[in-house]
């Protein structure tokens, strides 16, 4: 379905200042508040953050699948250089499942229990390529083969309840990849699966990504998954991107105190088992009651008055990495020699 | 599937035995002597005794019951005390009248209920939703004999319309009694179907709302499926599973509701037959009619179970 490669854009997806809010009678909850990031063609971007940081809402905003009372309020979502927020609903339908596909966290509930696997994969071919039932079924078998499901001719006529969780997630991937999308959004695709199946699914995604040369937006809260699959990483906290770097920098020199906190909270195999696990103190503030300054300030061991009162901007350094933290700015009013890696000492 | 149907039919036997025992004992526990009724007011004792003997009313109850069941399985439901005709032929023609009445009412109820429920669910909390559900609540709370009388008043006796209304001078559009022609069928069917339509509408709304919130609906949307197809194909097929149960139960309820509706509209069906027979203490007819009605109810539930299997693949019946 994709014609001659369009070279007028470098990034398959570029999000600029995206704002998505949920409205109640007298309250606006800013779930995504000015998120910007981009995914170069054929690369994998990981979006990391705790529950409630706005990762999933960001991904649903891209496909314009936010439901009432939510609304994408502003910003731009440039897909192949075109703003998706300007598209009509009919144009969006042609993009969904065809140029941008999505797989979800819960393979157990993401498939319709009353249709066969083949019908559900085939529907993509029927909608986007106008194939007949018979042709669609044939191609569904091919897709099942591609995602490594044994005896696909038999599986194609089975219902989701006859498949295991890992198998179902493979079916979800088959549905998503049916029309050869340019961008795959995977919202915690392995969270609900056990560890061995997780590895299989990640390998499969990686393999197919290289084969089909598509970009992936991988949403996860698992840094192990990031290490295994991503090229770039955006760390989100309370509806904002706090750090955006390539994967290597993230693991070798994390800059934002939140990122450092996330890293340190991963238990190490050689960790002293007598000691407590490292945690980020406090909890995510309620979206209805956001701190005035940096959103991480109440939990940050380095926070100063500046942090508590003024929100830092997302600054880009010479390597193209981005950071939203006062510590790296000229205005920093705390200890000029501060070392974010010494967090554990400064909090104990 | 075939095996399932056979097994399901066998399961109805204890149900029917239970029903026959209950009905049989009920008729003998209520005061009033059928022989007295048949003989008429002021008949000599001798004649009453004769009738008692002829009908076997002097036998012990268990024997009366066994005789009844033995005959019933052979298709002989006894003889009406009032008319002297076979109970099976008394029921015969009226059976289809009631089945037609209940069937048309169900069709109306399902049709209206599904449409209203889906409209409400897809526009939840809107003015349309609130209005439709308020009407449904009215429909649900209205006793159907009263609704029947009102419909007769408005659309059979009719209300004179002001002269500026084109074509019609009054609203006497339908017939108030009998069964057979279209104009006779309309009012009883509306009367009987209204409360079921209301229940189905409310059920459809909540079932659809539940399904629309499911992950697989989001999957369908993310696939680029049109919203109408998301609702009518992906959502409705799942939402129908609990609705089918309600429809099956409603059909049974309609058989009961038919008793009142048939009386109001003078429809000569099984419901009216039961009422007339109870008043005359014609208990072979009451027993036979209730037995046939339960048979029908059990059959409808069998159909519901099969429909279940077709909708929900997880139920493996064999």
TrEMBL record, chain A:
GO-annotated cellular components: plasma membrane
GO MF terms, alphabetically ordered: ATP binding; ATP hydrolysis activity
Highest taxon above the source species: Bacteria
GO biological process: peptide transport
Gene3D superfamilies: P-loop containing nucleotide triphosphate hydrolases
SMART domains per the UniProt record, alphabetical: AAA
Keywords: ATP-binding, Cell membrane, Membrane, Nucleotide-binding, Transport
Entry membrane topology: Peripheral membrane protein
Membrane-spanning segments: none
Domain ABC transporter: 13-263
Pfam families: ABC_tran, oligo_HPY
Major localisation: membrane
Subcellular location: Cell membrane
This protein's record includes keyword Mitochondrion: no
Assigned protein family: Belongs to the ABC transporter superfamily.
Protein's name in the database: Peptide ABC transporter ATP-binding protein
Taxonomic placement: Bacteria, Bacillati, Bacillota, Bacilli, Bacillales
Automatic annotation (TrEMBL), chain B:
Pfam family, one: BPD_transp_1_N
Subcellular location: Cell membrane
Membrane topology field: Multi-pass membrane protein
Assigned GO CC terms: plasma membrane
Segments traversing the membrane: 12-30, 101-122, 134-159, 179-201, 239-260, 290-311
InterPro entries: BPD_transp_1_N, MetI-like, MetI-like_sf
SUPFAM superfamilies, sorted: MetI-like
Domain ABC transmembrane type-1 span(s) in chain numbering: 95-308
UniProt record, GO biological process: transmembrane transport
Source taxon at top rank: Bacteria
Principal location: membrane
Keywords: Cell membrane, Membrane, Transmembrane, Transmembrane helix, Transport
Family the UniProt entry places it in: Belongs to the binding-protein-dependent transport system permease family.
Descriptive protein name: Glutathione ABC transporter permease
UniProt organism field: Oceanobacillus sojae
Gene: oppB_3
């Amino acid at each position: 379905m994709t014609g001659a490669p369009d070279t007028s854009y470098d990034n398959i997806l570029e999000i600029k200042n995206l704002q998505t809010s949920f409205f109640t009678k007298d309250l606006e909850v800013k779930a995504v508040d000015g998120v910007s990031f981009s995914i170069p063609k054929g690369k994998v971007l990981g979006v990391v953050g705790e529950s409630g940081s706005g990762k999933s809402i960001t991904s649903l905003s891209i496909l314009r699948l936010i439901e009432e009372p939510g609304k994408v309020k502003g910003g731009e979502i440039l897909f192949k250089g075109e703003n998706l927020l300007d598209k009509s609903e009919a144009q969006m339908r042609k993009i969904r499942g065809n140029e941008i596909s999505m797989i979800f966290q819960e393979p157990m509930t993401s498939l319709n229990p009353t249709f066969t696997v083949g019908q559900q994969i085939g529907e993509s071919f029927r909608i986007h390529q106008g194939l007949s039932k018979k042709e669609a079924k044939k191609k569904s078998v091919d897709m099942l083969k591609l995602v490594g499901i044994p005896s696909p001719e038999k599986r194609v006529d089975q219902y989701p309840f006859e498949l295991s969780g890992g198998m179902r997630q493979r079916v979800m991937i088959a549905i998503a990849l049916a029309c050869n999308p340019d961008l795959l959004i995977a919202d915690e695709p392995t969270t609900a699966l056990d560890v061995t199946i997780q590895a299989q699914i990640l390998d499969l995604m990686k393999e197919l990504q290289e084969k089909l040369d598509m970009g992936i937006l991988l949403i996860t809260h698992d840094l192990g998954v990031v290490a295994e699959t991503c090229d770039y990483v955006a760390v989100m906290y309370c509806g904002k991107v706090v750090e955006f770097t390539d994967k290597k920098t993230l693991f070798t020199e994390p800059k934002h105190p939140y990122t450092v906190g996330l890293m340190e909270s991963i238990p190490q195999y050689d960790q002293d088992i007598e000691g407590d696990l490292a945690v980020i103190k406090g909890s995510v503030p309620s979206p209805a009651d956001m701190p005035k300054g940096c959103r991480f300030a109440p939990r940050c061991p380095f926070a100063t008055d500046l942090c508590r009162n003024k929100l830092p901007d997302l600054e880009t350094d010479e390597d193209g990495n981005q950071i939203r933290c006062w510590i790296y700015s000229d205005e920093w009013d705390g200890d000029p020699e501060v070392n974010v890696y010494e967090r554990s000492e400064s909090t104990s | 599937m075939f095996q399932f149907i056979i097994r399901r039919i066998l399961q109805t036997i204890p149900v029917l035995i239970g029903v026959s025992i209950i009905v049989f004992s009920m008729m003998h526990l209520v005061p009033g002597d059928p022989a007295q009724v048949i003989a008429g007011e002021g008949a000599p004792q001798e004649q009453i005794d004769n009738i008692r003997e002829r009908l076997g009313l002097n036998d012990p109850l268990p024997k009366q019951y066994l005789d009844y069941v033995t005959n019933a399985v052979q298709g002989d439901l006894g003889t009406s005390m009032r008319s002297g005709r076979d109970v099976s032929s008394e029921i015969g023609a009226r059976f289809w009248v009631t089945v037609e009445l209940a069937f048309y009412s169900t069709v109306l109820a399902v049709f209206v209920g599904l449409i209203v429920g889906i409209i409400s669910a897809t526009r939840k909390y809107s003015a349309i939703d609130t209005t439709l559900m308020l009407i449904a609540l009215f429909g649900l709370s209205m006793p159907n004999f009263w609704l029947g009388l009102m419909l007769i008043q408005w659309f059979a006796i009719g209300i004179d319309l002001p002269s500026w209304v084109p074509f019609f001078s009054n609203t006497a559009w339908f017939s108030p009694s009998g069964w057979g022609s279209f104009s006779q069928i309309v009012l009883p069917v509306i009367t009987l179907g209204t409360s079921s339509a209301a229940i189905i509408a409310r059920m459809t709304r909540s079932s659809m709302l539940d399904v629309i919130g499911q992950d697989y609906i989001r999957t369908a949307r993310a696939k680029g499926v049109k919203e109408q197809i998301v609702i009518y194909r992906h959502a409705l097929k799942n939402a129908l599973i609990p609705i089918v149960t309600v429809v099956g139960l409603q059909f049974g309820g309609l058989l009961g509701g038919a008793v009142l509706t048939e009386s109001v509209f003078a429809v000569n069906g099984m419901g009216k037959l039961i009422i007339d027979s109870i008043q005359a203490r014609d208990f072979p007819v009451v027993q036979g009619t209730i037995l046939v009605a339960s048979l029908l109810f059990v059959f409808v539930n069998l159909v519901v179970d099969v429909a279940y299997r077709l909708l929900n693949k997880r139920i493996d019946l064999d």
